[in-house]
Write a structure and sequence with these properties.
Blueprint lengths: L10 H8 L9 E5 L6 E6 L3 H18 L4 H17 L1 H12 L3 H8 L1 H17 L2 E4 L6 E9 L2 E5 L5 H14 L3 E5 L6 H12 L7 E3 L4 H11 L2 E5 L2 H13 L3 E5 L4 E5 L5 H13 L9 E7 L3 H13 L19 H16 L3 E4 L15 E4 L6 H4 L6 E7 L2 H9 L6 E5 L3 H9 L5 E4 L4 H4 L13 E2 L4 H6 L2 E9 L12 H18 L3
Parallel strand pairs: 5-6, 5-8, 6-7, 8-9, 10-11, 10-15, 11-14, 13-14, 15-16
Antiparallel strand pairs: 1-2, 3-4, 4-18, 9-17, 12-13
Helix pairs in contact: 2-9, 3-6, 3-8, 4-5, 4-8, 6-7, 7-8, 11-12
The structure holds nicotinamide-adenine-dinucleotide.
Family: Belongs to the aldehyde dehydrogenase family.
Pfam family, one: Aldedh
Protein name: Aldehyde dehydrogenase (NAD+)/succinate-semialdehyde dehydrogenase / glutarate-semialdehyde dehydrogenase
Length: 519
């Protein structure tokens, strides 16, 4: 049976979407439907001069946008919130054709930007309002913290959540008064382009949100050299390159990078729930979630019980190419990525690991399908033991003591996400506190942490610098101006006052301020 492309994804629609991408060279990249490998559209590729022009246009629009009262800016996102939800199915169609993920994940992804908008529509007014602080001399001085937009933010997004990472971080920067130049991954440029179209339909000024496309190393240098701040989501290796260049330019960068995330199942865990969690944690989005689980640590007393149920669940997953809610797991993003996942499994097996289930590509389903795979005997000298596989592959490990489980969970360069399962919540939370990770979910895999938009979410160790969400997720896109006012000339010795008596009065004044609490 041939696969019917979603009705909304017409050639004319795709041509309109990509017509926004500048390319004076006329160069294009063949953007394909993952399930079939067929070319969907020729994606224009931007030159350094195109990128520079995109920044000039965004900067001109940003100067006006920053003058809009915040209430007016937020009005755009109130309208956009409704538009994004009304068009969730079309967004999911585009996410699916370009990434190959299953329908459930595509729809869930389409909901992330509206959740982010909802949070900051409520929170931005108090975060961006000027905050009066005390000055050094009570009553006669004031200091006010004023938040100003950085200017134009360069956003670099990966392919695994192209709509969420392309839109949500940009929307937050826009709310703070910035312009945007976005570089999506070539493979997955369609859904963010649709997002920009919806934002403009909601009233976002034209020109404020630019998009440029091309291979990362071709686009990156010009983009970073023109940006006032960089928001990057992607691999740790690329994050290091971006961070170095941003550092040289003395601009800030938020780097949201990879993980090798552990799940610890405690001896009092509800095993059925933990298995259900692990199925999503390992195979959700075909294992291509930065916060997903690649290592599961099980107590000796529950190892066999968990393993039997988990293997059964993995083997009963429906895997396939479909634009409806049928398949529980979709494709990997590309044949190249499938090769990478396969190489991790083959390397593990060659070095002594055992495939409990799965382990093979599924060319019968499409060019980039791979089976849900569970391994035992994975060690740190294997690719799958030390580096991020980013596919539907997990290693099972047995531990004797909780201290050993925590040490194993922390034995990694990464620190993005962890998951702890147990019915005694105090005990589980105490264990969570000992895990070196920017996010830890108790009795969940990742959604509880990631969907808590009021709390910053980021990685530690080699998993990142900075965070999205929470107050810092918005404030990072602002510079602080310390506006200080001296109402009377009282600093320093007064005319006729000798320096000794000035110092005496200043020191006793400081003591009095400490005692009275006046600042
Ligand atoms: P990647 O680093 O290869 O690419 C990410 C983006 O950077 C793409 O748009 C790519 O074109 C661009 N890029 C590549 N080289 C560049 C360069 N030299 N200069 C500028 N841009 C460049 O990562 P990927 O394979 O696309 O994405 C998967 C990775 O992203 C995984 O490691 C995953 O864990 C990580 N990720 C992290 C988060 C998070 O929030 N921490 C979220 C999603 C994905």
């Amino acid at each position: 049976m041939t696969l019917q492309r979603p009705a909304a994804v017409t050639d004319a629609f795709l041509e309109t979407l990509v017509s926004r991408v500048p390319s004076t060279s006329g160069g294009t990249w063949k953007l394909t439907e993952v399930y079939t490998g067929e070319v969907l559209v020729e994606l224009p590729q931007s030159t350094p001069a195109d990128i520079e022009r995109a920044f000039v246009a965004a900067r001109a629009a940003q100067r006006e946008w920053a003058q809009w009262p915040l209430k007016r800016r937020l009005g755009v996102f109130k309208k956009a919130h409704a538009l994004f939800l009304d068009n969730a199915q079309t967004t999911a169609d585009l996410i699916q054709v370009e990434s190959g993920k299953n329908r459930r994940m595509a729809i869930e992804e389409s909901c992330d930007p509206p959740m982010v908008m909802s949070h900051y529509i409520k929170r931005a007014p108090s975060l961006l309002a000027p905050t009066k602080r005390g000055g050094p001399v009570p009553f006669l001085t004031t200091s006010t913290e004023i938040r100003q937009p950085k200017g134009v933010v360069g956003v670099i997004a990966p392919w695994n959540f192209p709509f969420a990472t392309g839109m949500s971080d940009a929307i937050t920067a826009l709310i703070a008064g910035n312009g945007i130049v976005l570089k999506p991954d070539n493979k997955t440029a369609l859904s963010p382009l649709f997002g920009i179209q919806m934002l403009e339909q909601a009233g976002l000024p034209k020109g404020l949100f630019q998009v440029v496309c091309g291979e990362g190393p071709d686009i990156g240098p010009t983009l970073i050299d023109n940006a006032n701040y960089v928001m990057f989501t992607g691999s740790t290796a690329t994050g290091r390159v971006i961070g170095e260049r941003a550092g040289r330019n003395l601009i800030g960068a938020c780097l949201e990078l990879g993980g090798k995330n552990p799940m610890i199942v405690l001896d009092d865990a509800n095993i059925d729930e933990a298995v259900q969690g692990a199925v999503f944690g390992v195979f959700g989005n075909t294992g291509q979630i930065c916060m997903h689980i690649e290592r599961i640590y099980l107590p000796e007393s529950r190892y066999e019980e968990f393993k039997a149920k988990f293997v059964r669940a993995a083997e009963s997953l429906t895997v396939g190419a479909s634009y409806d809610f049928g398949p529980e797991m979709g494709s990997l993003v590309s044949p190249d990525h499938k090769e990478r996942v396969q190489s991790h499994v083959e390397d593990a097996v060659a070095k002594g690991a055992t495939v409990v289930t799965g382990g093979k590509a599924r060319p019968d389903l499409g060019p980039a399908f791979f089976e849900p795979t569970i391994l035992e005997g994975v060690t740190k000298d294997m690719l799958a033991g030390a580096t991020e596989t980013f596919g539907p592959v997990v290693g099972l490990y047995c531990y004797r003591t909780v201290d050993e489980a925590i040490a194993l969970a922390n034995d990694t360069d990464y620190g993005l996400n962890a998951s702890v399962w147990g019915t005694d919540l105090d005990r589980a939370c105490a264990i969570a506190a000992r895990i070196q990770s920017g996010n830890v979910n108790v009795n969940d895999i990742l959604a509880t942490a990631f969907a808590s938009k009021g709390t910053p979410s980021g990685g530690v160790k080699q998993s990142g610098v900075g965070a999205r969400h929470g107050d810092q997720g918005l404030l990072k896109y602002t510079d602080i101006q310390n506006l200080a006012v001296l109402k009377k000339q009282v600093m320093g010795a007064q005319p006729g006052q000798d320096y000794d008596s000035y110092v005496k009065s200043m020191l006793s004044g400081l003591k009095m301020m400490r005692r009275t609490g006046i600042r």
